[in-house]
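Per-residue structure
===
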Amino acid sequence: MKKIEAIIRDQKLTAVKDALKAIGVAGMTVSEVKGHGTQKGITEVYRDKQYSVDLLPKIKIEIITTDENVDKITKTIVDAAQTGSIGDGKIFIYDIRDVIRIRTGDTGEKAI
């Protein structure tokens, strides 16, 4: 089992969520986060004053899935979230040792 963690632009959430639903992703966790990568934030002007915004709003999507579905899910996220500009985000993939469904006590892939 794997955990897919995607950090994407906040305006791409609907497109990514719809694309994942279309390929049959049953569940995901979505969080609003702030951060920056290589772009180191942005500089804006407000009332003739220049200021730096170093933590930009992003969306983090977390999905637990079987090993077989990782490539399909990551490709779907990239296709739906990609703009070609700096700040599109990143995808991280982690190994998951076990999953336990609290309600039933199911473990492993049955619990996903």
Notes: The chain has one domain: 2-111. The domain at 2-111 is CATH 3.30.70.120 (Alpha-Beta Plaits).
